[in-house]
Structures are given as structure tokens and as C-alpha cells.
Design a protein that fits this description.
Layout (H helix, E strand, L loop, with lengths): L1 H10 L9 E5 L2 E5 L11 E8 L8 E2 L10 E3 L9 E10 L2 E2 L3 E2 L3 E2 H4 L6 E7 L2 E7 L2 H7 L3 E9 L2 E11 L3 E4 L6 E10 L10 E6 L4 H32 L1 H8 L7 H8 L30
Antiparallel strand pairs: 1-2, 2-5, 3-4, 3-6, 6-7, 6-8, 6-9, 10-11, 11-14, 12-13, 12-15, 15-16
Protein name: Fibronectin type-III domain-containing protein
InterPro entries: FN3_dom (IPR003961), FN3_sf (IPR036116), Ig-like_fold (IPR013783), Interferon/interleukin_rcp_dom (IPR015373), Type-II_Cytokine-TF_Rcpt (IPR050650)
Keywords: Membrane, Transmembrane, Transmembrane helix
Length: about 300
């Protein structure tokens, strides 16, 4: 039985992995592929790379992924982001292995997806400070080429831009309307790599009022409140004077005797007379009843 299994295994051909693709985000690069199955046998995968357009460079194993039973390989630490490379992967099961599946040329520095950045909004007095940051790997690779594109707008009117900045963090927006909610869309811009795809980040905050505006508001409130109280008192006195009769009628209503009671009291009083006892008929005597019993 064991010999038959070995012969069958030697004759079997593993299928090469398909759907081989590279996904890179913020210079974190991972190779993915679809799983390969082999009946009754465990399948592992081997991943290699070489520099593109350099025939002298031989294929080299990526040690962190050889062998691996996963269907992915994180090669970020194995290959510099500035290198243009080709990668390939194959399935292995004991002494059996598939053909290689190879990728197109790839350079993380030129093809990674950037963003979204970390954004912190600091509201101030009629102002707003945008503090943006990126992972250290991006900052180390792109250095001075890295800037931020910031578009500000009112939340209730997102189509109208209030301000735009293209500079390094932090970024200050001034002369904003107090007690208004402002939002920003922040994107990372790499001046030397303009074709990079970027993912923006949206954040919102409420703008505070400055001391001058606050003082004016307190002064207006302190003046308007007494005026409002005086106006209410005068208005109440005017209404009382104008509607005095109605108010008096509501507070002190005049009670009147109902009409049917007035009519009853206006009629002469009734006298009740007792009839003399002599007027009652005397009780007539009862007839005599005789009962006869017959005795044998």
C-alpha cells in the first residue's frame, strides 16, 4: 500500500498557484495567491524574488515565507522599497512541486497606496490647527518629498471650499466663523511620486469664539435682558388696564339665582290642613260566622 501511494504521489502534478497579486499599502507589501489542494497530502509554498531587468541576479528565496502553508507572503522587510523586483510562487508537497507563477515588475516606492494619514484637529479662537502624521516607514523613505494637501469647508456646505493648504504639518486656518462646524479633507502628497494613489482622511471640529466676540456677546445680553423684562412688565400693565372688566369678571364672578328657583319663590305659599277625625268613616262591624260540626 505504501509503495502504491509513493508511486501515485510521484506521478501526480500539482497545479501552479493562480490569482497571484501584490497589495501594498503605506509600503507594507504582501504577495497573495489562491490555495492549491492535493488529496491526502499537505501543500506548502515557496516564494522567491529577483531584481527586474538584471539577468545576473538569480532567484532568491524569501526566508520568512519558505516554506509556508499560508496563501500570502509579507516581503516588506526582505526587499527594499526602492528595488524593482519580480516575485514568483509555487506549490510543494514532499518531492512533488508545481510550476512557478510569476508577477509583473513591482516597486513599492512607486506603486504603494498612500494613506489615510493620522489627523488631529485642534480648535482655537476663530482658528483651527491641523496636525497630520504618517507611519515612520513613509517618513523615512520619502523624507522632504512628503507634504499634506488640506481642504477645509463648512460641514453644512461641503461643496464650497473655505481654504486650501499644501505644506508640512502643522497647518493653521484662521479667520473662521465662531460656533461653526468645520471639516477638512487631508491627503498625503509625495512631490517626487505624483502617480501614487492616496486615500484621504476627513475630520470635523467646532470653532471657538475669541475674547472680543465673547465680550460683545456678554454686553449685548446684559443690555437686552433688562430691556426685555421692562418691556414685559409694561405690556402686562397695558393688557390689565385694557381688559380690566373681563379680568374682574373672571376673578370675581356675580352669582345669580336660577330662573326656575326665582319663579318658585315668587308664587304664594301653600297651607296644609289636617282633616278632622270625625270625617273619617267608622269601621263597620264584621258579620258573625257560625261553624257547625257534624258528629257521628
Amino acid at each position: 500500500m505504501f509503495v502504491c501511494q509513493v508511486i501515485h504521489r510521484g506521478l501526480s502534478v500539482l497545479v501552479a498557484p493562480d490569482n497571484v497579486t501584490i497589495i501594498s499599502k503605506n509600503l507594507l507589501s504582501i504577495l497573495y495567491w489562491s490555495p492549491v489542494t492535493a488529496e491526502n497530502w499537505t501543500v506548502h509554498y515557496r516564494v522567491q524574488y529577483k531584481l527586474s531587468h538584471d539577468n545576473k541576479w538569480s532567484w532568491t528565496d524569501i526566508e520568512t515565507c519558505n516554506p509556508t502553508n499560508k496563501t500570502e507572503c509579507n516581503f516588506t522587510s526582505a526587499i527594499r522599497a526602492s528595488f524593482t523586483v519580480n516575485l514568483r510562487v509555487r506549490a510543494e508537497s514532499g518531492t512533488d512541486f508545481s510550476s512557478w507563477s510569476e508577477t509583473e515588475s513591482f516597486c513599492a516606492l512607486n506603486e504603494t497606496v498612500i494613506g489615510p494619514p493620522n489627523v488631529n484637529l485642534i480648535p482655537g479662537k476663530r482658528a483651527m490647527t491641523v496636525v497630520a502624521s504618517v507611519p515612520p516607514s513613509l517618513k523615512n523613505e520619502y523624507k522632504d518629498h512628503l507634504k499634506y494637501s488640506v481642504v477645509s469647508f463648512k460641514k453644512d456646505d461641503p461643496m464650497k471650499k473655505v481654504g486650501f493648504r499644501l505644506q508640512k504639518s502643522p497647518i493653521l486656518f484662521e479667520d473662521l466663523v465662531p460656533w461653526t462646524r468645520y471639516c477638512v479633507n487631508v491627503s498625503i502628497v509625495i512631490s517626487k511620486f505624483t502617480e501614487l494613489k492616496t486615500v484621504p482622511k476627513k475630520e470635523c471640529t467646532d470653532i471657538l469664539e475669541d475674547e472680543e466676540t465673547k465680550s460683545i456677546k456678554l454686553l449685548v445680553i446684559s443690555v437686552l435682558i433688562p430691556i426685555g423684562v421692562i418691556a414685559m412688565v409694561i405690556g402686562c400693565l397695558f393688557l390689565v388696564k385694557k381688559n380690566y372688566g373681563h379680568i374682574k369678571h373672571l376673578l370675581l364672578p356675580v352669582w345669580e339665582v336660577p330662573n326656575h328657583i326665582q319663579q318658585f319663590l315668587a308664587e304664594p305659599s301653600y297651607e296644609f290642613c289636617e282633616m278632622p277625625l270625625s270625617s273619617y268613616s267608622r269601621e263597620e262591624p264584621c258579620d258573625t260566622i257560625t261553624v257547625l260540626l257534624e258528629i257521628d
